Amino acid sequence: MVFLLPPLPRNPDPSTFIHLERPSQTDDFRNGDLITTWERLFQWDDDCVPASELAALSKLADPLVDDFLSSLPPPHLAHKDLLQLLFEEATKEKSRGLSEKGLALRLWEEVAREAPEGVKASEADVELGQRVFWGNVGGIFAGLMHFSLAGGFSSPRITASLHKASYLIPPSSADAKYLPITAITAERTLSRLYETGQFVLDVMGSEIPVPDSAPDTEKLASSLLTTSGLAGLSPPLPSSSPSFGGAGEGWKSAVRVRLLHGVVRRRIQMKDQRTGEGFDEETGETIVPINVEEVVGTLSSFAVAPLWTLETMGVTLNAAEKDAYLRTWRHIGFYLGVPSPLLSRHFSLYTPSSKFLASIVCHLFPSPPPTGSPSSIVLGEQNGVLPPPTMAILDAISNRPPMRTTLEYHQNMTRFLVGDSLADYLGVPRPTMVGSLRLRLSVLLLTYGTHFGNAYPSRRWRDTRIRLMRDGIGRMLRMGMGKRKSAFRPREEGSGMLSEEAKEEEGVRMDPVGAYKMVREYQLLVAEMVVVSLSALVGASVVSFVVLSKLRSASGA
Prior knowledge:
The chain has 24 helices and 4 strands. It is mainly alpha-helical. The protein has 2 domains: 393 residues, no CATH class; 41 residues. It has a 4-stranded mixed β-sheet, covered by helices on one side. About 2% of the residues have low confidence.
């Protein structure tokens, strides 16, 4: 199967396709060249980025964040709310009245400013972008989990950083091979995936309902939270001193993730200094972990890749919906630390964004191995290539409530979305015929609500479904996280555990009565969908029978 990334010429000649063999090859591509890599076909043009430009981005870190964190003792960071810590340090610097701004205050003023024109999303874009997300949340999360994370995080350079940070994968032993995937390591991986999911929900406007039985002070605090729309992604209101006043919950999560990236980058660099690693084998240059290329590539995998996977699942979005979704992530990317020129150039329209992600894939991934060659896991044992996080991720999300989907299902979904060549490279088993049929049925069920909503002329039904999705998925995720809402705190190095004190600070009050009402309302919504669908099917059958009967009568006469 070949995945097409339009625009493409009509009836392209396969003999003219250029099969990517090495990343540096892209420096020689010319506009109009038809490129194939990992079963993707696209046409090279001005929206594509050659390897030399991407290599320059891979040498850039996040100086403001790195300088601030380097001023703090590393043990002081474990289990801390990094955004709160930045706020406190910036407040201290401001109170001293120094003529020159300190590291904390400079960073605070950067993250607390409005996104510049050409990067900041409009209220209409965010409203539509978030509506696209919640209207297709099942398909988008399937794409994020099986394509963006299980597939996209498997490039050799990102895999190396994940191993050193023991993030999303079991810790590596001294000879750089996997420790066995156990129940403990699977829970640790799942915890990281839950946090990633919470970040996505936060920036997409998920709310935290407060039970009716909660104290009035808790209800008041909840009412002051800004979650959805552009306000949920906006920084604090301008103030003479650091303040959280008016700050959106999505903004807070984006900045926390940016700070967490800085902590992980610093730890990897310190580890490389101790071990003498961290140098490019070909150039001898120092490798910058979690660099600008990797961060903007991750942003693309959250913004663009889900649109690719929705198309693979048969869901069609119009141009306005795609562009609004991308511009929402463009706005988020600014607070993740992505340079504004990259955001304004590559995250405004769908086609340029798609070409940009294709360019990054060409640069971060090796050339596809020959058909029938051993998987990357086998190659890792032979050539010292670190095994990717793919199977650890798929194992961690298997047999989990509420759906209890099997490992086979997640393997088949990954192969369906990333393609056979990349799935083979990652060591994902090929499905049985029965498994393939089950997957197709699962994709239909996963996307049926979207298809039904597009066909059913009821705005009420669509709005209710989006409201219930916004409510219900957040409830499930917080329950899975142990009744807490993560502040994206760094753990102690070498440990995936969060301190009990931090867990208590992140704890949220569950609302079983509200959850029951939400489930009941969702059941009624699904019942309406089933009744209308069956009625339409019966009606179509009756009309077909009548028409065929009249045709037979006419032909008999």
